[in-house]
Amino acid sequence: MSEIPRFPLYDLHSHTRASDGLLTPSELVQRAVTHRVGVLAITDHDSVDGIAEAQQTVIDQQLPLKVVPGVEISTLWENHEIHIVGLQIDPQHPALQRLLAAQREFRQQRAERIAERLEKARIPDALAGARRLAGEGVITRGHFARYLIELGKADTMVQVFKQYLARGKTGYVPPLWCTIEEAVTAIHEAGGCAVLAHPGRYGLSTKWLKRLIAWFKAAGGDAMEVAQCQQAPHERTQHSLWAQEHDLAGSQGSDFHQPCPWIELGRKLWLPGGVQPVWERFPALAPR
Ligand code: AMP
Ligand code: MN
Ligand code: MN
Ligand code: MN
Fold first, then answer.
1. pLDDT band at 5 (very low <50, low <70, confident <90, very high)
2. Cβ atoms within 10 A of the Cβ of 145, count?
3. What pLDDT, in 10s, does the model give residues 169-190?
4. How far apart are CA 130 and CA 148, in angstroms?
5. What is the mean pLDDT of residues 205-230?
6. Which ligand has the minimum distance to the alpha carbon of residue 146?
7. How is residue 288 annotated by DSSP?
8. Less crowded by CB within 10 Å, the N or C end of the chain?
């Protein structure tokens, strides 16, 4: 499998401080340009609040970058938390706004319950700690993870999730997210295209993963992420084949949250031949 360079470089999955990213929208777009990204989708968890600042920075600084307004919606499917990315959405659309408001309301309630559970495990003030780290942004388990690291309870994000926040652990609260169909419908109503995010990261067996892809397609899904920067060998080829089998377009994204040695905006993002790039199926994604 050889790299086929395509220009411009698309990175269709990234986070800002509007959710659990560490950079401001303005810092994120500047970093994207440094890494030669030409089209960047901002896809915060259940929030569209980072998009306007990113777009304004591109205009003010005349950056050679197109910002795609996006979102990453948490859903529940067969007791698994599945993430659906919406690309080229109208951030102000009422149907989308309604769904995101409900998701954030649930996030707040879940955060309170996570903190209660941690309190019982003699970890104090977790709600205030996570809220402080989230700032004005949407509260996520990522903020609880950073707070626990601050307290010295673990050294890395992976470790802290494994010990405290993953399913079945002290700080885990079963989620009440919307369904895949509800997320896809809201994204479509807001004029966007719906993308199944990082299919390789749900810990599903091949049988269940194929079931998920078929379900997503039946729910009206448009594309799936085929390429990410950190990926097991052959996963990209496999995902490309499944996308083609289900007539889904292929997307690619770093899922960048913060500067770190392994994940970078635009890094190793290319699609195998055969799968239709999502920006060809949805020309609105292409640069002006
Ligand atoms: P939430 O949407 O509030 O459940 O938070 C999920 C977020 O936590 C994900 O988007 C990741 O950024 C982060 N996350 C989840 N699992 C892990 C993990 N094992 N290691 C590091 N970060 C994780
Ligand atoms: Mn995240
Ligand atoms: Mn995700
Ligand atoms: Mn993400």
1. low
2. 25
3. 999 999 999 999 999 999 999 9
4. 9
5. 97
6. 1
7. -
8. C
| Amino acid identity at 86 | G
- Residue owning the nearest CA to atom 18 of ligand 1: 158
DSSP run (H or E) holding 108: helix 94-120
Of 232, 229, 225, the closest CA to residue 262 belongs to 229
Strands (E), 164-212: 193-196
196 has which bridge partners? 84, 224
- Residue among 19, 22, 108, 161 whose CB has most ligand 1 atoms within 8 A, to mutate: 161
Q: Which helix (H) or strand (E) holds 142?
A: helix 141-150
What is the best residue among 76, 139, 141, 176 to mutate for testing ligand 1's pocket, by most ligand atoms within 8 Å of CB?
A: 141
Domains, the chain, ranges and CATH?
9-99+177-285 (3.20.20.140), 106-165 (1.10.150.650)
What residues are paired with 74 via a beta bridge?
Answer: 83
> Which amino acids bring their CB within 6 angstroms of ligand 1?
20, 45, 74, 140-142, 157-158, 161, 257
Cβ 81 vs Cβ 52: under 8 Å: no
